[in-house]
Amino acid sequence: MMPPNTSELTSLQSLPCFTDIIEVTRFNKGLSHVCFKVTTTVGNYFAKQLRDETAVKEASCSVYMANAGLSPDVVYHDKKWLITTFIEGLSVAEIDANLDEQLVIATSIMVRVHHVKSSSFVSANKFSLPCLTELDIASTINDLLTDSNSLEAQQRVLLQDMGKVLASRIDHQKALLNTALVFCHGDINYSNLLIDEQQSVWLIDFECVQLAPREFDIAMYIAINNIPFELIDHVISNYQQYALENNINRPLVNLYISYSLLINALWYVKKIATLPVTANSHYHILAKQQAVAFDNFNLQFTMQLAELLPKISAK
User: What does pTM read for this prediction?
Assistant: First the structure.
């Protein structure tokens, strides 16, 4: 951990939820947001700096999930900051657990999230909630390609075309079984699952929340945590055991895995363009990892999609 800069410290000190701050330390782990541990005379708090485009969604979803007992209590939020109670413990990425143990933790809390009713979420919050929208595959890919200086114009066109193909096939598969939409977290990676000293599990980071089929969250969990593809059926079986249902659409899971690997690779590529060359090597590795997984999955399951790795190679 390291201290905040002067503007960050001043901003935190100005928040009405803090009176007597003793210490503020920055978290170095994590890929997307600036986060701090704030120690005051009355306790410890977690402070997350929000993005303008997702601030309302993340804050409102955090409040609702805290009320449902799934995430830490929200102490304060505005358009810039989300302040929650600090969970003393470790993430699932940090604990000594095997793959099966990690899977049980992740799938059990995923089921609990999916059982949240989106209609009750809307009525229970004082937000107009344009923030909670249905997952739009083509739009998500287009947003990731916008201002991505790491890619040539021709590369972006080819990737947009790939997104359109995936979107069409996913829509077709959803229509076949009249697939229901649920509250999907969209990023159940092991770093977003915290285990406190009482062994309770807490889910954090609601920036990627969407209304989508359950198969999307299952697929993103597999993609972002690099779950071996031979264990996909095992993941689905675990999920169905906790959900007490047996109707997960495996072809739809496969399509969403391809989509998840694609957008993860593009997110890392876009991140590369925002960093100096000396600081972006980690993201190069992660982008390549997801792209290679996409291509391997495509071959193994005959997804009939073009290769991704050549399309995200640096110009």
Answer: 0.93
